[in-house]
Amino acid sequence: MKVLITGGAGYIGSILTPTLLAAGHTVTVIDSFMFHQNSLADCCCYETFSVTRGDSRDERIMTELVAKADVIIPLAALVGAPLCARDAIGAQTINAGAVQLLCRLASPSQWILMPTTNSGYGIGEKGKFCTEETPMKPISLYGRTKVEAEEAVLSRDNCISFRLATVFGMSPRMRLDLLVNDFVYRAVNDRSIMIFEGHFKRNYIHIRDVVRAFVHGLANFDGMHGRPYNVGLDDANLSKLELCAEIQKQLPHLVYLEAPIGEDPDKRDYIVSNARLAATGFAPAWSLQRGIAELIKGYTILKDQIYGNV
User: Fold this and answer.
1) Predicted pLDDT of residue 266
2) What residues are paired with 71 via a beta bridge?
3) Full-model pTM
4) How much of the chain is helix, strand and coil, in % rounded to 5?
5) Residue 115, strand partner residues
6) 20 to 30 Å CA-CA from 54: which of 9, 109, 235, 292?
7) Would strands 201-206 and 49-53 be described as parallel, antiparallel, or unpaired?
8) Residue 256: HSE in the Cβ half-sphere, 13 Å Cα cutoff
């Protein structure tokens, strides 16, 4: 298939793009390369790969690119509540506006597979799993813009929305700000973690299982389209304190403490059911412990010492 990926050089796109190319698809990426990443350099050997340096909000560029695609995967976004708070206009126009533009430009026959965040569930009911039927109650600007984008996509029939748990794992365009990635980095380098809101629970999913979910959606689109799907690990509905205990199993030197030093702008405190996606035949391949082991190796390579003397 001919696949158009916006933000295809980002954290998820840097793994999804080569995966789709290796599977025989033709892939076009549009990305602003705002983080100066070179994560798609190894894709340039594919004759079926093309790339545009540009902005997914540019209607002139997007009209031309959308016309050539069978499938559109809008990954371009300002991800996370802190980044969106810093650039509220960008959050609204990229996270929501650019996706609404795609929905306007795409024909009814074109597929849209979209990732959103299950932080849109906000504060869950204690002991009650959030399902795809649970009302979305986003709190932060980030959560609200992603819910707006999902509403636009789900107003079409030829679509799938993946409501992603907190993603973790190594990527060529690495992000250290995601919770598991951040905690393991601190455990490796600082040997200590200071936690706030330690009993807040959320769900987790490895980045390669996110990519596998997209591949699964492409292969099973006829039976899955028109609905949202939670994507997470059933055995990883964990609090921050429980997550630290899992990390400590592989890094016994880790010391973690809880203190009232901050708060989550998304107020994420919920447990999630992933049964709908499992019923389509999808099963994650990466456990939390396997992902932690991967990150420990990765942080042997990545050392963020730009501003340090030692």
Assistant:
1) 67
2) 3, 111
3) 0.94
4) 40, 20, 40
5) 162
6) 109
7) unpaired
8) 23
Could you give the CA distance from residue 216 to residue 231 in angstroms, rounded to a whole number?
Answer: 12
Grouping H, G, I as helix, E, B as strand and the rest as coil, residue 145 is: helix
CB 41 within 8 Å of CB 34: no
Domains of the chain with CATH codes: 2-168+204-233 (3.40.50.720)
What is the rounded distance in angstroms from the CA atom of residue 16 to the CA atom of residue 10? 10
Helix (H, G, I), strand (E, B), or coil: what is residue 288?
helix
From CA 72, how far away is CA 70, in angstroms rounded? Answer: 7
Question: Tell me: the pLDDT tens digits for 218-266?
Answer: 999 999 999 999 999 999 999 999 999 999 999 999 999 998 877 776 6
Cβ distance 1 to 25 under 8 Å?
yes
d(CA 46, CA 24): 10
> Cα separations (Å) of 27 from 55, 70, 75, 258?
17, 10, 14, 45
